Structures are given as C-alpha cells and as structure tokens.
Amino acid sequence: MKSKKLLVLSASLLSLLLGGSTAMAQRGGGMQMGPQQFARFQLATLPEVQSEIGLDDSMKKSATEMLEKMREEQRSLMQEGGGDRQAAMAKVNEMRKKFDEEFTGKLEAKQKSRLTGIMVQVVGAASLMDSELQTTLGISDEQKKMLTEAQAKNREASREAMQGFRDMSPEERTEKMAEMRAEADKVIMAVLTDDQKAKLEEVKGAELKVDLAPLRGRGGPGGQGGRPRRDN
Asked: pTM for the full model?
C-alpha cells in the first residue's frame, strides 16, 4: 500500500514538473497538473504576488472567492467518484479559464502583463500552451501544432520514466524529476524562434520568489487542501 501511494505521489510530481497540458489532465490518471492549474487568478491569491502587482482589496477578495469556488467544484467532482473523469476535468478546466479571463479583464494592462510574467516563471515552458501568451509571442498555427506534439512527447517520456521510480530513493527521484523538467522544457522551447524566446524572457520579467504551498494543498493546485490565505 505504501509503495502504491508513493507511486501515485511520484506521478503527481512528474505531472507538475513536466507541465502537462489541459489535454493531459483530461486523458485520465487523476487530477493531474498543467499550465492552467496555476492560472493567473490563482497566483493572485498569494501575498507576494498581490504586493508585486499592486492588487487592491477588492481584487484580492475576487481572486480568493474564485479560487474557493473552483476548489469546491473540484472537491464535489472528486467526492462523487466514478463517472466520466475526462468530462469532470474538462468542467474544472473550463471554470478555471472562465475565472481567469474574468479576473484578468479587470486588471490594468501593467498589472496583467506582470502577472502573466509571474505565471511564466512558475509554470515554465509549459506556459506556452496558454492561448493568450501564444498571441503575445506571435505563435503560428504550425507552431501550435508542434507545441501539442512536444507535449505528447513529454507525456510519453514521463510514462516511461515512471517504470523506474519505484526503486529510487527520494533524493534520486527528486534529481530525476529535475532532469526531466529541464529536458521537457528544452523540447517545448525548441519550437520557438530566437525572437520569440527573447520576447518570452521579456514577458517573464524580473524573478519573483513565490511560495506555491497554499495553492497545492492535499489535492494539488485547487485541490482539497490548503485553502488560500486571506488578507484582513
């Protein structure tokens, strides 16, 4: 039983490190993680992010309420059990996208730009699956297809890597996952032109240290545990 739990945990961590797309989450295997799992409005519930972009109390409250609603929906879907897992994840992702558009639509251009940059820092190369970022970088339809193929390649690599995880120590697993994240990022970044890579760095902006623990909780980002912190 302990070995099985460890394997499930490793799979969840791999999903995060490899930055699977929404499609990855929808293809089974549980509530896996992808770029939309750390949407802008979710990051906007973190104090350090709120301070960085100059969020007022009204917008802080809005972000927190949206996150709580999304978590409640996900808790409900997970508690129901069985059913169409793919449809359940599609529903959660649809809600996440709706909230993100609603929230960012109320931000000033400078705030939205900085928040997008922080998202890129947190998610890594997998953020390139974000449609708004693709527009900003001028990603072509052909490149979008290549990005989807790159994500599929990374998913396959993660499945193969899982075969040897059971016999690794925690330290070895951590090191292996870091290596896989770096390799996955390479595969995705290879799709971009030099100009687009430079633009992505520009969008990313100055590094901001972000504590993601409040967003992860027991069930991963937006999961069952770890309620967002409130500002009084």
From this structure: 0.73
